[in-house]
Amino acid sequence: MTTETKPSYSPGLAGVIAGETQICWVDPNAGLMYRGYDIHEMAEKASFEEVAYLLLHGELPSFEQLGKFTREIASARSVPKQVLDALRLMPKSTHPMDMLRTGVSMLGAFDPELNDHSHDANIRKSIRLIAKVPTLITDGYRIAHGEDPLPQKEDLTLAGNLFYKLTGEVPQDWQIRMMDTILILYADHEFNASTFAARVTASTLADIYAAVTSACATLKGPLHGGANEESMRMLGEIKTPDRAEKWLKERLAKKAKIMGFGHRVYKKGDSRVPIMRELGRELGQRVGKGQWIPICEKLEETMEREKQLCANVDLYAAPVFSMFGFDPALNTPIFAASRISGWCAHVVEQHDHNRLIRPRSAYTGPNLRPYPATPVR
Ligand SMILES: CC(C)(COP(=O)(O)OP(=O)(O)OC[C@H]1O[C@@H](n2cnc3c(N)ncnc32)[C@H](O)[C@@H]1OP(=O)(O)O)[C@@H](O)C(=O)NCCC(=O)NCCS
User: For the chain, what is the radius of gyration of the CA atoms?
Assistant: First the structure.
């Protein structure tokens, strides 16, 4: 057996630079920028469409470009009837993330440009995906609950339609603004697990739908996007702020992982938390559900003292979604309705400058040994 020098190894690829990107930078010291723009101001002022355009094209849109992009998304929202019929065939108990993954995979078969990986075709397909992923989520959810999907409202933006098609209520301006902020905060996060999965898939020159299917599958896990659903489960269990400290200490004593805490890159705080926390406070006052944010704050305070671990955005996203009236099972799909913009931008970038992503593993199995003279039959 030939030997080779062992390449350096970092468990979980922690700290490893696995590629270059011009799309997003996560600053370990609690910062985040998309294409050079700090997210904080955009989260407050921009529309999700504007940020999606920035991620895809690299520059902010002009007024005309934004109008055209918004119209293109609006006109691409519907999904083929066959896809909705397929979602109807899934068991009613199917998790919305599994419905979404299945729906995205099937959508690929209906895209006439599926196998064209040129930059322009990938951008066109990205627009279709950004438009259709929210529809798969809203329509899939209604179908699973025995209801007919609602038709989209032409005059509402992506954020507005997402809210409307889930709740059946036309959102007020402040609700649309909040929804835009949430979607902007979740839009991209450089080489997070689902984006990396998308890039690995795209690097084989598989199509963008294949890459996004991988991403959806990866986002579902509770150590990644699934954490915002699990966080809500945790808050529901704690119930009131005065129970938070005791609850947390008991879990930590049992070495349990606490959802909504910790991060691979941020060690001094998640850049998105202050905005999501503030949004949660405002929403709590508006809808009269004051208990959730104080529970989160008590958990933060205790976690800092006990483990020096910071909250991540999913801790506060959970009560925000709950106060909007969304079923916790929709928390991760709503994350996906935003992150689809980042996934697509990364697939476009990967295909534009492709090199197969294929790392090595450190072999820890048995040394070379003889195969038995008498094989087992
Ligand atoms: C996000 C996450 C997967 C990062 O994992 P990671 O980079 O491998 O974690 P670290 O190496 O920084 O962990 C350092 C220590 O903190 C602990 N830790 C990290 N996150 C923790 C959490 N949420 N609850 C309890 N302990 C945690 C680890 O167990 C480890 O302890 P040890 O040294 O005694 O083994 C992890 O923090 C986690 O599981 N968080 C909960 C899920 C979540 O909220 N995910 C959404 C992320 S945006």
Answer: 22
